[in-house]
Amino acid sequence: MPSASRRSVRDWLVDIGLFLAAAAVGALTLSDRLAAPPLDIPLWAFRLDQLVGVLSCVALWARRRWPVGLLLVLVVLSTFFELVAGAMLVALFTVAVHRSTRTTALVFALSMVTSVIFVMTRSMPGTPGVVLFTIGFVAQSAATGWGLFVQHRRRLLVSLRESAARAEAEVQQRVRETIAREIHDVLGHRLSLLSVHAGALEFNPDAPAEDIARAAGVIRQSAHQALQDLREVIGVLRAPAGELLQPSLDDIEELVAESRRAGMRVHLSRQVTGPVPARAGGTAYRIVQEALTNARKHARGAEVSVRTAGRPGEWLTVEVRNSASGVPAAPGGGSPGRGLVGLAERVDLAGGRLEHGPTAEGGWRLSAWLPWPA
């Protein structure tokens, strides 16, 4: 027998317990009949009843392989043999556990029909037929109900496990997306600076020594800062969520100053009243960072304006505009759009709204509105 069909220790304990329960029901019934006045049946029929009862209990070891077939045989036998009752109840319980509710209802109805036939054809001294049928109905209903309860409980547990597995997979997916956003936002800005200046050196090798030295300095500084940012990202992945350091709205000034040192023309306007919530400030920083990175890659030489405005009880507005640029994009600038997708997810998680698109003058605009509770 394949290992997948082997009984576990728990299966063996359950099978032994149900076998003993069926044998006990048969033994109690036999004891009751021996103590009562003789039945109105031949002695050989009574002996045959005992033999069939024993064989029925032994047949229960095949209940896992042929639950419905075994039950049908025992139901038919119970029409004529009383001592089959215990094994028949166990088989009925097994079908209720492992088969559909429709199948269980059909075999239960068949067992009720055979019970009626048994009561009508067999007389029990001192026990009215109605009482005998009621006892059988209650016992079979209890076995069926217990089996259905076990089946539905198992289905519920399986459903809960599947739901937990799906929830864990969704959490892992969100974690991966968060990590990807962090890596893109943190490293994209630095690496775009490095790419722009390296591309300028490659395509203008005859530039004055001062320009070459300045570009080389920016490349060195950007590469060093990229390594620092990478260490911070690794630290973020290892640190508890409550200990993550996030940029604030005030850090935008340094971000703009850094872009100016790289040769960009950036104007900053700040019209913010009151302390900005940490989440809104960090999201605003990432918006400006992504916008400056995109302007540097796809609108070289364009003039960029950064504006932040808001107060408690209103929206924190962040807007970045760049003018049209006739200068081709820097080599290695990459394809646009991926960072905007991550930015839209970040803004959505913060409960805000993001808009972006070309302006009438041929430039580009990126605007966001972030909630600022009073």
UniProtKB/TrEMBL annotation:
Q: Which EC class heads this enzyme's classification?
A: transferase
Q: Which residues form a coiled coil?
A: none
Q: Work out whether the entry's keyword set contains Transmembrane.
A: yes
Ranges where the Signal transduction histidine kinase subgroup 3 dimerisation and phosphoacceptor domain occurs: 176-241
What EC number(s) is this enzyme filed under?
2.7.13.3
Describe the reaction catalysed, as an equation: ATP + protein L-histidine = ADP + protein N-phospho-L-histidine
Which organism was this protein described from?
Streptosporangium longisporum
Q: Which Pfam families match?
A: HATPase_c (PF02518), HisKA_3 (PF07730)
**Membrane spanning stretches:** 12-31, 43-62, 68-93, 105-124, 130-150
User: What GO molecular functions are on record for this protein?
Assistant: kinase activity
Which keywords label this protein? ATP-binding, Kinase, Membrane, Nucleotide-binding, Phosphoprotein, Transferase, Transmembrane, Transmembrane helix, Two-component regulatory system
Please report the stretch or stretches of sequence annotated as the Histidine kinase/HSP90-like ATPase domain. 284-372
Could you tell me what this protein is called? histidine kinase
Q: Which domain of life is it from?
A: Bacteria
Question: CDD domains this protein is in?
Answer: HATPase_UhpB-NarQ-NarX-like
